[in-house]
Amino acid sequence: MRLLSYIYFLITSIRNWLYDKRYLKINEIPDVDILCIGNITVGGTGKTPAVQFFAKKLLKMGRKVAIVSRGYRGKRKIDPLVVSDGKKILVTSKESGDEPYIHALNLKMPVIVGRNRYEACKLAVEKFGVDTIILDDGFQHRKLKRNRDIVLIDATNPFGWGALLPKGTLREDFQKGGERASEFIITKSDLISESDLETLKRFLKVKFKKSVSVAKHGVTSLCDIKGNAKPLFWVAGKRVLLFSGLANPLNFEKTVISLNPEYIERVDFMDHHDFKEKDFDVIKKRAKAMDADFIITTEKDLVKLPKGLEMDNLFVLKIEFTMLEDNSLKGFGEINEK
């Protein structure tokens, strides 16, 4: 693993050096502000709710906004592809990928996916006349110039176990990535102690001399699979089985623990798992064995459940990104940034 991580380090470092020196081309889209929401580690930092938070914030600022994503694991024949025109969802979650589909469900703005983010952004401008684009999970996508790179730092594992993939979860060297960031947001701050949070804030500020904000991911509602809201207090004192396809399912468990269940077990699947009927044979068997009152999953996993699935005790926990200390987007879009 150590050798593979070193090889990965060499590849990413050389690639970033080539972009830094402009040996590799960086495309620019004129007259459009591009905000990138990304991270230095793989998964688990809460990008999806963060993107939606900033989409709403920019709308309140009077911006005409679109979201552009790679559409990871989306199976589509057209690329780039319009997922939503801001009024209607035009494709399935299998075509778009799960995160873009969730954006389309929750936001009234264009959502576009494309392997070539430059072409996807051009489509957003040409088709919808937007003046601002949020680039979802694009920090390592160096081919496209942006005005601001917001890097999310997971408070529960800020440094990716101190190693690059595959030994750790770092996508690139933390030092070099941090230097390229415009600002940081520490996410899931409510899952660590106040002293640990202050230590992490101080480290980022001193190390990189960049703005640091703090956010948490709080529970907003418990819904059945048809979207009907249920009281959160239902979970208290109950036996709960969790299932998810997340990079960091432990954080999902910690969030449910905050609702005071009597007992919890988990069934974990690979990140971005596409659920099949056979998966629910495993889930139902586990729920029966532990005498579960509720089976709970995430909004991200909801969009990948098999059609026509009926389980009376299956619920979805919805999470909201909330800023506790907001120093973000200061001066965003000003002439001196372009």
TrEMBL record:
InterPro entries in the cross-refs: LpxK, P-loop_NTPase
Catalytic reaction annotation: a lipid A disaccharide + ATP = a lipid IVA + ADP + H(+)
Any one Pfam family match given in the protein's UniProt record, by short name: LpxK
GO terms, molecular function: ATP binding; lipid-A 4'-kinase activity
Superkingdom: Bacteria
Sequence positions that bind ATP: 41-48
EC number, as in UniProt: 2.7.1.130
GO terms of biological process kind: lipid A biosynthetic process; lipopolysaccharide core region biosynthetic process
UniProt pathway: Glycolipid biosynthesis; lipid IV(A) biosynthesis; lipid IV(A) from (3R)-3-hydroxytetradecanoyl-[acyl-carrier-protein] and UDP-N-acetyl-alpha-D-glucosamine: step 6/6
A cellular-component GO term for this protein: plasma membrane
Assigned keywords, A-Z: ATP-binding, Kinase, Lipid A biosynthesis, Lipid biosynthesis, Lipid metabolism, Nucleotide-binding, Transferase
Known function: Transfers the gamma-phosphate of ATP to the 4'-position of a tetraacyldisaccharide 1-phosphate intermediate (termed DS-1-P) to form tetraacyldisaccharide 1,4'-bis-phosphate (lipid IVA).
HAMAP family in the record: LpxK
Family, similarity comment: Belongs to the LpxK family.
Stated name of the protein: Tetraacyldisaccharide 4'-kinase
Biological classification of the source: Bacteria, Fusobacteriati, Fusobacteriota, Fusobacteriia, Fusobacteriales
